[in-house]
Amino acid sequence: MILLLLKNINTNTANGPDNIGNIFLKETRQSLLIPLHYIFNYSLIHMKYPKQWKITNWTPLHKKDSIYKRENYRPISLCNNLGKLLDKIVFQTLYHFLESNNLLNIIMALKGNLVVNIICLCYYIIFMKI
């Protein structure tokens, strides 16, 4: 999954705070596969998300009208590319699990904290191998 995500990574996006560009990740994907696999597995098994990946750069982006009014801007965040990669892996794995176990429609019909609790339980089942 890591190799496929790196192969299809969007190279037209800006670097995050770590300054690791998607072009670099795409071009060196074969060499990065084993180290990233280890880091991602460690993160998931120990339920620890690297602090450096939580850092984002926020930039105001002008939407419309006057550039002198604050409400005419929206924030965009530049996240670390490795953090986004791990997020995609978790999302795709969780989505596939929910879909293949016919839980996706049930969860979409629920509201509030129950949804969060069910998704957390599924995450635990998938990655902790209960």
Brief overview, please?
The protein has 130 residues and is mainly alpha-helical. The protein has helices at 2-7, 22-27, 29-45, 51-54, 81-100, 104-109, 113-128, and strands at 57-62, 73-78.
Query: Distance N terminus to C terminus?
Result: 22 Å
* Main sheet attributes: strand count, strand direction, barrel closure: 2 strands, antiparallel
Beta fraction: 5-15%
Trace the largest sheet across and list its strands.
1-2
Portion of residues in helices? 55-70%
How big is the Rg? Answer: 18 Å
Low-confidence stretches: none
Task: Write down how many β-strands occur, each being a DSSP E stretch of 2 or more residues.
Answer: 2
Give the class from helix and strand content and strand pairing: mainly alpha
Write the element-wise H/E pattern from the N-terminal end onward: HHHHEEHHH
| Chain oligomer state | single chain
Number of domains: 1
What is the count of DSSP helices, taking H or I runs of 4+ residues?
Answer: 7
Question: Shape, please?
Answer: globular
Give the secondary structure arrangement, pairings included.
Blueprint: H1 2-7, H2 22-27, H3 29-45, H4 51-54, E1 57-62, E2 73-78, H5 81-100, H6 104-109, H7 113-128
Antiparallel strand pairs: 1-2
Helix pairs in contact: 5-7
